[in-house]
Write a structure and sequence with these properties.
Layout: H1 2-15, E1 19-27, E2 35-42, H2 74-89
Antiparallel strand pairs: 1-2
Helix pairs in contact: 1-2
Length: about 90
């Protein structure tokens, strides 16, 4: 999770000048297994949620098609993968 968080931070910082930070969460709440979330945060987020956990986003936004992972995220996925490779190789 540490390396993934670092890779997400590097990728988002490179791709979006409004990058703020990465939030890391390890949970074991409703799922019967421990799991983690890596959330990049940005200055362009609405003022009423930018300084709060992402769970404060409106419920309907979580299922809105415009925010779903898709081809528009290919560059971000590739950049995160490249950063993970760099971290693994120590560069």
């Amino acid at each position: 999770m540490d390396q993934l968080g670092e890779a997400v931070e590097r990728a988002c910082r490179r791709l979006d000048p409004a990058f703020r930070r990465v939030n890391l969460e390890i949970l074991g709440n409703t799922d019967p297994f421990l799991h983690a979330h890596v959330w990049p945060r940005f200055e362009w987020e609405p003022a009423d949620v930018v300084g709060k956990p992402v769970w404060f986003y409106p419920r309907e936004q979580w299922s809105d098609e415009q925010f779903r992972l898709g081809p528009q995220h290919d560059v971000l996925r590739e950049t995160i993968g490249s950063e993970l490779d760099r971290l693994r190789s120590g560069t």
